[in-house]
Amino acid sequence: MSPWSRVGAAVLAVGWGANQFSPLLIVYRDQEHLSPTVVTAIFGAYVVGLIPALLLGARFSDRFGRRRIMRPVLVLSAVASLILLLGAGSIWLLALGRLVAGVASGAAFGPGSAWIKELSTDAGPGAGARRAAISLSAGFGSGPLVAGALAQWLPAPAVVPYVVHIVVTVVVGVLAWHVPETVTGAGKPGARQRALKHALTSREFLRRIVPSAPLVFAVATTSFAVLPALLPVPVAPVASSGAIAGLTLGSGLLVQPVARALERRRSPFVLSCGLALTVLGFLLAALSTALGQALLTLPAAVVLGAAYGMLLVGGLSRVEALAEPSDLAGVTAVFYCLAYLGFAAPYLFAAVDVVVPAPAAFVVAAAVAAVLIAVTAPVRRLSGRIS
Length: 387
Known about the structure:
Blueprint: H1 3-19, H2 21-30, H3 36-64, H4 66-86, H5 91-118, H6 127-153, H7 160-176, H8 189-200, H9 203-212, H10 214-230, H11 237-254, H12 256-266, H13 269-291, H14 297-322, H15 328-340, H16 345-352, H17 358-375
Helix pairs in contact: 1-4, 1-5, 1-6, 1-7, 2-3, 2-6, 2-11, 3-4, 3-5, 3-15, 4-5, 4-7, 5-6, 5-15, 6-7, 6-11, 6-14, 9-14, 10-11, 10-13, 10-14, 10-16, 11-14, 13-14, 13-17, 14-15
């Protein structure tokens, strides 16, 4: 395996661990008799560990190197699954396991994406962003898909999925342990801070990345968390929940060749395409909920997943173009922090559902995404360049 693919496998394993919990929510609710409120709180403990780890992990990896961060992160991801495996009957252990999974994810995504980019310099501009997006999407998609199937049809549904993830993480850890380091010098802290501030306050970052990044996970969570709750599938609910998540994130993975072709020809327009797909996906969600047809959630999941993939690749490629090598992980981490704001989408839809019907809420969301197409559209400079 090439060095970048071994790091990609590490990011995949951590992403798998982050998302494997989603279909198991039904197991904890129905078999462990935990209330929906408690289950939601445990699910949210992930974000508590994620955000600070995103920022600190990126900062430390820019200073001390990618490998020094990613090695313990893989161990931590396996430990999180071990805690969840042992904690099926304990609210506190489940919350701790999700918290540790959040720390592992936060510390992995920025440094891991930066490491993949640095190991992909011979593959042309944008290759690192695409490869990082593929690795992350593959992990996010395979985690719930495999966990849902295992929990639905094998005994010990609150144990077996975590055992499989631990085995996967150990194998990946062996493969990735000795990948070459790409950070050869720490650089001056003051210079790093100035470079980071310059990137984060640039017009490109503020006008294009900040408004669009939260939609990365907003469209994904709408597909695999909001729609199944509004239109539940009566057959094999655990596996179906995992399958919807896998379909969503798998679509994000399969759209990568299109994103790659567009990236080569008209790089700034990848984000615009992602937003256009977001509009279409929300309109399909509105149609499916208005008609009450669970079957229509499938095309909605495909389109929302494609939107997720385009927005992720577009955002990471813009970050790659903006950031200096010394602050790449830091800018990437801020992008992921903004993207993870989209995890609030299910809570927002649930809050407005009291006063606004779901179809109307989805139409409003589509209108907001349509406005963002204009707000974030690339600008043609006098020189003829598009940015």
